[in-house]
Amino acid sequence: DAKTTQPPSMDCAEGRAANLPCNHSTISGNEYVYWYRQIHSQGPQYIIHGLKNNETNEMASLIITEDRKSSTLILPHATLRDTAVYYCIVRRDFNKFYFGSGTKLNVKP
Amino acid sequence: EPEVTQTPSHQVTQMGQEVILRCVPISNHLYFYWYRQILGQKVEFLVSFYNNEISEKSEIFDDQFSVERPDGSNFTLKIRSTKLEDSAMYFCASMKMVDQPQHFGDGTRLSIL
After folding, report:
1. What is the C-alpha separation between A83 and A103, in angstroms, rounded?
2. N or C: which end of chain B has fewer CB within 10 A?
3. Interface test with B, best of A91, A94, A98, A104 (most B CBs within 10 A)
4. CA distance B14 to A83
5. What's CA A57's distance to the chain center, in Å?
6. For position B72, what pLDDT does the model report?
């Protein structure tokens, strides 16, 4: 499975958009990009995933570059409850998830 | 919305004792996983299970560990003789089909004394 690179931490003002980048330059053609978050020691929470096209759901938007070597998770209006560690994961088929260190997002009032 | 449920939320066990962690995956899911997270560290894969057999396991998942799906609803992780270093959060996850997301439970905190 391709590995990912994320900044260790980011700050965002409450109410503003949070844009979390992820680099996955070794991604292969059949690997999906998944985003999860973990609040304190709770179980990882699924946010969104995609293969090639941009995706949007009620939680977030996922922008994948045309060459698929990087992606951005967008939380359109961050709240204090969005403070968490965000993980970008690439995976093929039913394989395991490899969790890196993620990005610690601090949403500030 | 259906959830993965794990019991107990916290388990305290003496070193050397056997422990069984229980999970009820989402009902129509076919793929099952266990992960663990030692305090302050990354989430680590332990084992995946499909069609009543282990499909992949990590080097952490040694002979002291076993998994079972004893009936149509439960998925268990057994540690035969616990060690201090087994203290961690253990997360169960399930997935409906390939290329779909895994859904995680809220974990069992295992404390070995």
Report:
1. 10
2. N
3. A94
4. 35
5. 13
6. 78
Q: Which residues contact B45 (CB under 8 A, 6 or more apart)?
A: A96, A97, A98, B33, B35, B58
Q: How far apart are CA B94 and CA A27, in angstroms?
A: 24
Q: Are B47 and B91 in contact (CB under 8 A)?
A: no
Contact of B105 with chain A, judged by CB distance below 8 Å, is answered with yes
Other CB atoms within 10 A of residue B113 CB: 10
Comparing A34-43, A46-55, A91-100, the range with the smallest average pLDDT is A91-100
Mean pLDDT by 10 residues, chain B (113 residues): 92 97 95 95 93 93 95 93 97 92 96 97
**Is residue A103 exposed (0-12), middle (13-18) or buried (19+ Cβ within 10 Å)?**
buried
Token pair in block for residue B42: 């990354």
**pLDDT on residue A55:** 97
Contact between A96 and B45 using a beta-carbon 8 Å cutoff: yes
